Amino acid sequence: MENLLVYLDHNATTPVAPEVREAMAPFLSTDWCNPSSPYRPAQRVRAAVDRAREEVAALLACDPDEITFTSCATESCNLAILGTARSAGPGARLVTVSTEHHAVLNAVKAAQAQGSDVMFLPVDRQGLLESGAFIGSLLPRTVLVSVMLGNNETGVVQDIAAIGRACRERGILFHCDATASIGKMAVRPQDLSCDFLSLSGHKFGAPKGIGALYVRADVKAYPIMYGGEQEAGLRPGTENVAGIVGLGVAARRAKQFAESGGPVRLDVLRNAIESGIRGRVPSAEFLSLPPDRPDRRLCNTLSVRVPGVRNDELVLLLDREGICVSTGAACATGASLPSHVIRAMGYADEEAREVIRISLGEENSERDVERLVDAFARAAAALSGGSYLRTRVPVPVELPS
Amino acid sequence: MKVLVGLSGGVDSSVAAALLREAGHDVTAFTLLLGHADPDGVHRCCRPSDVRDARAVAARLGIPHYVWDYQELFQQKVETPFLRGYAAGITPNPCGMCNRDVRFGAVLDRAIRLGYDALSTGHYARAWAGGLYRGLDRQKDQSYFLSRIPASSISRLVFPLAHLTKPRVRQIAADMGLPSAEKPESQEICFVSGRTSDFLAARLGETPGEIVDAAGRTLGRHSGIHQFTPGQRRGIGISGSEPLHVTALDAGTNRVTVGPRRSVFRDRVRLVECSRLLPPDDPWPETFGAQFRYRAVPAPARIAASSGNEMDLILTEPAFAPAPGQIAALYDGDRVIASGLIAA
After folding, report:
1. How many interchain CB pairs under 8 A, A with B?
2. B243 to chain A nearest CA, in Å?
3. Which domain covers residue B152, as residue numbers?
4. Which of A69, A83, A250, B239 is the most buried (most CB within 10 A)?
5. Which structural domains are found in chain A, ordered by start?
6. CB under 8 Å, gap of 24 or more: what pairs does B191-195 form?
């Protein structure tokens, strides 16, 4: 039992689904032709890329021509934001929210360095964008608004449809980062009034290195890389065929998962974790919105802090029991800066360093929930003894005279 | 035993971890991030390559490995006091501060909270039955830097290299095929790249003042007292009938006092912030060795007076330029019996 892995960090990445792996395999062995080549072996490859585009379009209920394959959601966000900012020229206004992923925040900052006028909107203590401040920010010269759907750290879901409508009425382009939301809720750019929408394959069963950007049919997007005519020139470079094929299958699976009650099942598991931790660790505070706001929280994500317990220590103790959870967004350097998302919600640095993110996936079971709740409660109890804020002060010991 | 071992990416800590693993302990490794990114984003220390090396060693040994960010605490407990000390005309010992407050302070607290029985590093020193002793390789012995650790913590420490020499450690690393076997030595202050004097000049700026002799006569000018430490001969820039050494630094007047070599020896040294490592019941030796610098030969000493956590030492053989702010480690043979900071 001890060595069975309980993986509860699906917002970091997900296992590659067996059907995805299987569908990709031919494109890493026999079907290796360049999809742009004219001969018959290449036509099979082109057909697979076309099919994948249709499957992603079906997931988003949009037209296949509105899908551009990229390497990841970070690239998609950069393409939407920097492409738009550069085409609009200096002085154009970009509006985003302080709880966005760094892929959006840092792309907006890069646009700022290139002359854009940028604005980062605050959120309230629950992580929700305040609609009054948002409407007020839509001044003339605003060319693009970027707001994420479900937050990858807290699971808070913004009212994207309302935001999208407000932008559309004013002729402002709207980008939505839906990376954390795919497969957890219906994501239809048309219903959300999006002009751009970013997603990443590895968050829902495809491998790392493949993403997509939805660009509404009557919106002109501008590339940030230059080369050949692949992806209609918006994203040049020979296609990552195996990745694209994998993304197509993962999209089909995500659609089936959503249509067969998958999100409801995740919601039940997540609520079981929440009530389990509430029962065993009374001091725990939940940063995700309460269960009575089901439309405002991702069904798979739970954000919780235990006052006085450092998140990196709790993660280590759970890891020792084979349970994988996260301190927030995965970071390559190992530096543990307090999460900008949690801080933007008004928490102090030390509080932000207590926040644990639990994110479920389709393979999780009730047994996983039981093991997590039990291990979480024991770890929290073990670490609650002494405050980590205390540092050891040497006690002067009497010296000989 | 459940042991938490610090892996820096170098050969010493790698072998320490490997020996613990071989002895059958339940070993978990960690690497500390201590340095800050410069404004240009370049880490001065704890480079990504060091973390990568540590990760490679942990993977080779099949032990879990975590990277822990202690940058804030390191700045608060080591970097800032280091700079303030130099600005105030003393010569701080950053390794001593880090060992006491970070590596064997906050990290030891964490190890205990996480349920580990012991904390281990690749230091050359012996921790035995609650006592701290010199490592058997006298060339590498690091007990001087460890002497600031409180007595209550010593019993939690394990130094697997205690009885090994550096060549033997390299041999073990090579025999085990550890990736760090050939890695060169790191000697300098970890958060300073290049020369310490350049780092201090860049961080503390120029604060020009006078260089004077013992009688107060002006002999020349200096660019900042932070560029000097007692005993120093280089960088004074004044030629005399005999070589001149720094004898004292005064932050109040911003003066550097110099004199001939014979004038820097001291036979009385006052220590502050002392802590005793010898258990209260063990008899305190009449005479003992007082070491004022890393690798210096200890001066035979006895206590003239002590009160609170301060003491006055009488040295039977004068010591070369004890520098205020540096560690004074007191030894009875190989055993560290107390430690303090040299008073200004």
Report:
1. 85
2. 39
3. 2-176
4. A250
5. 6-14+260-383 (3.90.1150.10), 18-257 (3.40.640.10)
6. B191/B34, B191/B35, B191/B36, B191/B44, B191/B45, B191/B74, B191/B78, B191/B79, B191/B94, B192/B44, B193/B44, B193/B45
